[in-house]
Amino acid sequence: MKSNRRLLNRILGLFLIFFAHSNVWAASLTASVNKTKVVKDEVIQLRVISDKKLSRDEISFDVLSDDFYLGRPNFSSSVNIINGTRQDKSEWTIAIAPSRLGKITIPGFTVNGVSSAPITLNVTMSEQTFNADDVIESRYDIAKQSLYPQQSVMLNSRVIIKTDPRRLQDPKLTSPESQKGVKLTAIGEPKQYQAVLEGQDVLIVDQSFQVTAQEPGRYTIEIPTLTGSMLLGDNRSGTTRLVPLSPTAKTISIEVKAQPSDYQGQWLPADKLSLTQVVVDSEGRPLTEQETISLQVGDSLTRTLTLTAQGLTTEQFPTLAIDNPSGFRVYSEKPTLDNHADGSSSMTLTQVIIAQKTGLFTLPKVSVQWWNSQKDTSQVSEVDALQVDVSASEVAHLPKAESLAQPTEKVVIVDAGLWPYVAAIASALWLMTLALLIRERRKPRTHIEDDSQPAATTANNIQSVLLAVKQNNPVRAQSAFDLYKRSTTLSADADKQIQQQLNQFHQSHFGKQPVAWQSDTLQNLLHELGKSHAKQVKASPLAKL
């Protein structure tokens, strides 16, 4: 019995091995096309089928790229079970179009040792002609084709597509390439939109480039166009062809002139260049038209310079160095650079200028030397100097004038009450005694007024600093603090802490890299300073009346 079971197990094992190998041997791979006689560029369908479950990547159609235009392959895999029998199927389909004439062979495809049979196509020339220039048209616009080194010009290109975009296969917009002596930079992304041109619906693609000359010489730039392929149907035969799009490329000739050997200074070639200025006070009122600008110590003005050029990039703008007088504190903002739709560019520099000393000052003129490429000559653009007359601040003197007026009035009243006694008594000794009495009465009153005057002024200045901080005005805050320091004696430590906070306040508004700043610390320091000053005033001894 045991020997019979062993024999039966061996027979079953052999049958399993046989059937397993039979499934492999039964695997098949079949390739087919819908027609073998085709015209050049005609689209046909290639199909490859296997009766096994395979993956998409097990067949590559790259071997056909030398002789065919290829579409995108589609892959599907399915399983059917009928009456307990499993049937697998894997299928690839791809659109192909022959790119040359004659006999072309589609080679066999191999998967896991199983290969399909090769297919031979007979390719002839179509009677229907195709001209890509009838479908794709390129246009361009450029202001000038003669430049100097470092000069730039805007190139606007336009591609007009005169067919249904859905018929295009793998369309690509070409870009002009930079050469050794000319640099091209795309400005933004291509703009695509529908339009009607000469009664025909078209698709338009616009793209702008900045052309910057680098080295003298003559150069050729190719205008952007559209490449790829297009589905072309034949109404008579009912066939479809995939024709390549190779429109005629238009070119532009660019001449780069040499820099004049006798030119002196920073090289700035441009078609146009202008320098303007606007000056306003702290309230935003314009001051430019005034012959002499009048300010008080602590007042501020804002001077804004704008340099605008046609034919220069923002990277080529010079640094505007302005040597302002030492009687001003100056805060310069980071220059603002802009490119405009007309191809021009501009740089804006703003300075906040605070008067710190009295006197007549001159804010210097600012000039820029440049090369006029239209007239081939050197020019200078400049803005005028500004005369500024700075006087003492009225705020600092006002409390003192008011306080001094009071004792004068009181003294007159006292003197008026003594004259009857002087007339009645002729004794010189009595007059001397009376004069000494009047003098003694004046002393404590003058002392009281002198002590109260700086106390009131100091308190007012602290409140002015706090008010400017709450109004988020760093210029006024600095001016008020400078007035405060002139009216009292401030410890070095307190001065340092408050000035550090004011510097951060200015940095948050005018710094090259503005940072977030909170005013809590500065306000606390000012409040503590006010409390400390109030204690000192309260503790001061008063003269006896």
UniProtKB/TrEMBL annotation:
The chain crosses the membrane at residues 418-438. Keywords: Membrane, Signal, Transmembrane, Transmembrane helix. It comes from the Bacteria. Residues 1-26 form the signal peptide. Coiled coil: none annotated. It holds the Pfam family BatD. The keyword Oxidoreductase does not apply. InterPro entries: BatD. PANTHER family: PROTEIN BATD, PROTEIN BATD-RELATED. This is BatD family protein. It comes from Vibrio gelatinilyticus.
